[in-house]
Design goal:
Layout (H helix, E strand, L loop, with lengths): L8 H13 L7 H4 L14 E4 L3 H16 L6 H15 L4 H9 L3 H17 L4 E3 L9 H5 L3 H16 L5 E4 L2 H14 L6 E4 H7 L13 E3 L3 H6 L4 H9 L4 E2 L20 H16 L5 E4 L2 H10 L7 E4 H10 L1
Length: 328
């Protein structure tokens, strides 16, 4: 007798939001693009600055996960929440956003990462354009969760959105977006010919123009699995640190052998995800470095969440660390 396999409800919610609303939590374009108000970036140009809403979404996702952690997805409470979601959805109101935003923290910090990244690239001499409220999420989760047919159809919308900029190069802040654009879209989506670069690569190419970062301690780099294993970018991070005068300590597992931050399993297994993050934090803290650096919004959130209260080791995105040199 065949057994029907059902995916966890949260995955169907995420999938539906991406396909229908253009990002995993159905945030409005104005909310995703609010970080750029101070910069007045043009909508068209040679180099498209692409956030995909990923840094902006992380605090909401983390809050949603916290809500889910206290609820049994097979229980009456979760069923009630799903029922309310269906009612609100019919009324044009997204329930996941409501549940998540009630507890959302660090929104300003994650939005500022986008702002700081754009400023750094501009200071290095890059002329950027930005899709603003029209920017769509890359669809990386559709690929990672196995919704490939959905990605094939959704990707056409994303490509059309990107083409409106007239850009020849797209700069991705998140390695998840860079991976799906560079390795997946060419196989699934017709007409995708834009050059894909990561923020790290763009900075690395002009690292000789980076200002020194005054930091009395050493740093340890947590290599994002997507960045190091899928995109082959790891030495570039070390070169950038050398350029700004920061001493780097290496953990036992790094580069292509990096250990998972726990982020990928957060939606399905939040408690296991937290344990993995806690273990990785321990590995990184063993180096004695003062700051843990990473270059992925999900790694940043997972490692920050795994840091024990009272820990003397900070967790920063590479963007935040480099911005220290420009903020003086």
């Amino acid at each position: 007798m065949a057994v029907e396999m059902k995916l966890p409800p949260v995955l169907d919610i995420i999938r539906g939001n991406i396909v229908k609303h253009g990002n995993p939590l159905a945030l409005k374009g104005a909310e995703v693009a609010s970080w750029a108000k101070r910069l007045s970036l043009p909508a068209q140009g040679e180099i498209l600055f692409y956030t995909g809403g990923e840094y902006q979404l992380v605090p909401f996702i983390d809050s949603l996960v916290k809500t889910m952690t206290h609820m049994d997805q097979g229980g009456k409470g979760f069923s009630l929440m799903m029922g309310v979601r269906n009612i609100l959805d019919k009324a044009g109101i997204n329930a996941e956003k409501i549940y998540a935003s009630v507890l959302a923290k660090d929104k300003e910090r994650f939005n500022n990462v986008c702002y700081k990244a754009a400023v750094i690239l501009q200071e290095l001499g890059y002329d950027l354009c930005y899709g603003g409220e029209q920017e769509l999420y890359s669809g990386a989760l559709l690929y990672e969760l196995g919704y490939w047919q959905d990605l094939r159809e959704y990707g056409q919308k994303v490509v059309q959105s990107l083409k409106q900029s007239g850009a020849k190069t797209i700069v991705c802040l998140s390695p998840h977006a860079a991976e799906v654009f560079k390795l997946v879209y060419p196989k699934l989506v017709k007409g995708f010919q834009i050059e894909v670069r990561t923020f790290v690569e763009m900075v690395w190419e002009k690292r000789d123009k980076l200002p020194a970062v005054k930091f009395d301690d050493s740093v340890v780099i947590h290599d994002s699995c997507r960045l190091a294993r899928e995109l082959g970018i790891d030495q570039e991070l070390r070169d950038i640190m050398e350029s700004v005068g920061a001493a780097v300590r290496e953990p036992m597992r790094s580069r292509k052998w990096t250990t998972c931050c726990g982020g990928p399993g957060k939606l399905l297994f939040p408690e296991i995800s937290h344990k993995i993050a806690d273990r990785r934090i321990g590995e990184l803290e063993e180096t004695g470095a003062g700051v843990i650096l990473t270059s992925c919004p999900y790694c940043l959130a997972a490692l920050q969440g795994g840091t024990k209260e009272g820990s003397e080791t900070g967790v920063e995105d590479l963007i935040e660390f480099l911005y220290r040199g420009f903020a003086v």
